[in-house]
Amino acid sequence: MNRTYLIKPVLDYDYPTAVYGEGIYLYDHTGKQYIDGSSGAVTASIGHRVKEVVEAMIAQANQVSFTYRSQFTNEPAEKLAKKLSEWAPGDLNWSFFVNSGSEATETAMKIAIQYWQERGYGRKNKVLSRWMSYHGITLGALSMSGHVLRRKRFIPLLEDFPSASPPYCYRCPFNSTYPGCNLMCAKELETAIKRIGAENIAAFIAEPIIGASGGAVTPPDGYYQEIKAICERNEILFIADEVMTGIGRTGKRFAVEHWGVVPDLIALGKGMSAGYTPIAATLVSDRVMEPILRGSKAIMAGHTYSANPQSAAVSLAVLEYIEKHRLVEAAAEQGQYLMEKLQQLANMFEMVGDVRGKGLLLGMEFVADRLLKTPFHPETDVTNRIVARAFEKGLLVYPAAGGIDGAGDAVLIAPPLVIQKAEIDRLVSILEDTIREVESELRSEGWTGQLFAG
Ligand code: PMP
After folding, report:
1. For 41, 124, 254, 356, which has the most beta carbons within 10 A of its beta carbon?
2. Closest ligand 1 atom to Cα of 41
3. With a 6 A CB cut-off, is 435 part of the ligand 1 pocket?
């Protein structure tokens, strides 16, 4: 390995260098082609090297690349905020721009707390969340995240713990089944609110579809309607973390639309700029802005790069591209096709326990015993084996292991929204070869159903 000073995710691993991208493909320094089957980290939603975005980037750089938000507003940021208010459901008309999903969820938390302060309820400052969730890597966002593996090292520093179970129907935390369960997982939120006291709680945050910590775990019909009703009844705000699910990924502009609910705040990131520049946002409803506009007239958050004109111009070009090419509709249609193909794989391979998700945010969970849904022992490292074997074969999928308690194996399959059916066929065929190889490797190590179960 050449001498390196870059701190990479795994320090002793020799990563290939990405040098070129085109549509759904990435190419490394040896010229090897990869299908970007996870859009990076579910980000590169319109594919790589899109001419219109590159042109918007250059045009803005020729105007002005940086202005500071305490001194100026700028045209791209104004236009982007207007466009997002047209895209967003209900009265989510306001945008606060930041640089990453972690900052977007933290800003949502801060705005929720500020909202109650402005109304004279200073004690309402806790944010509830669910286990099996991911809201970001900074300490505030990680405090809200129920991602056992990512929390582990920082436990004493994290302020609070998630307080509700995930809507994980495949392996129900209450050992029940929908619809007989009567949405116990949603109702548990109300029990938690009673225990902690609504007078101490500012908001509840949830990913509409669980991404990084479970692999497209999708709640049943009625779940978010119930959550919203509980939040309203107890006077706490509902924050939807749409960093992964937003901007068309699930076949709707925002995933909460699948349940027909309008949150009080939405955190956005990833697909907002499709990875071309770092930009994220917290969308705020008129209702939440109202006491702030009357009160301190400023949001107590923000960064040097907040509302950066260069990033805003790029995000605007991405949203226009999605509109022009009807990519939200494409995500729904191609997602349906990909889902059918993945279900065929589930019928072929014993280790595939579940296939789930919406639009082009799909997940596949692997199990040691399909009947009992027993996870593989964590040391079997099934998720990483699938990811690494697919990588070798030129397919990128995203590891989403971790389940409720740190065990469980899953990957996300979330290609760019521009993917075509023939490309889906190729993606699925590589995935099929990958699973076949890993399955036979596990069998050669003695896997016979329950033997490797944790
Ligand atoms: N929320 C969700 C739902 C995410 O999936 C992620 C990133 N995986 C984040 C927040 C954090 O975003 P970022 O990595 O841009 O800080």
Report:
1. 254
2. 8
3. no
| Residue 27 DSSP code | E
Domain residues for the domain of 130 are 53-324
Nearest CA to ligand 1 atom 13: 101
What confidence tens digit (pLDDT) does each residue in 64-95 have?
Answer: 999 999 999 999 999 999 999 999 999 999 99
Average pLDDT over residues 318-327: 98
Same domain, yes or no: 223 and 341: no
C-beta 136 within 6 A of ligand 1? yes
Same domain, 336 and 372: yes
DSSP for residue 273: T
Q: Are strands 201-206 and 126-128 parallel, antiparallel or unpaired?
A: parallel
For 360-417, how does the pLDDT look when each residue is reduced to its tens digit (9 = 90+)? Answer: 999 999 999 999 999 999 899 999 999 999 999 999 999 998 777 777 899 999 999 9
Task: Give yes or no for residue 102 CB within 6 A of ligand 1.
Answer: yes
Atom of ligand 1 nearest to the CA of 211: 5
Residue 13 belongs to a domain: no
Task: List, in order, residues 6 or more apart from 130 with CB less than 8 Å away.
Answer: 146, 162, 163, 164, 165, 166, 206
3-state secondary structure of 452: coil
Give the count of domains, the chain.
Answer: 2
Give yes or no: residues 374 and 423 share one domain.
yes
Among 244, 245, 247, 283, which residue has the most ligand 1 atoms within 8 Å of its CB, making it the best to mutate? 244
Answer yes or no: do 357 and 368 share one domain: yes
Ligand 1 neighbourhood includes 99 CB (under 6 angstroms): no
End residue of a domain, out of 281, 307, 324? 324
Q: Are residues 68 and 39 in the same domain?
A: no
Burial 97-133 (b: 16+ CB within 10 A, else e): bbbbbbbbbbbbbbbbbbbbbbeeeeebbbbbbbbbb
Tell if the pTM clears 0.95, that is, is over it. Answer: yes
DSSP assignment string, 332-383: HHHHHHHHHHHHHHHHH-TTEEEEEEETTEEEEEE-SBTTTTBPBPGGG-HH
Instruction: Please work out whether the CB of residue 211 comes within 6 Å of at least one atom of ligand 1.
Output: yes
ipTM of the prediction: 0.99
Rounded to 10 degrees, the C-alpha dihedral 117/234/261/307 comes to 10
- Cβ of 135 less than 6 Å from ligand 1: yes
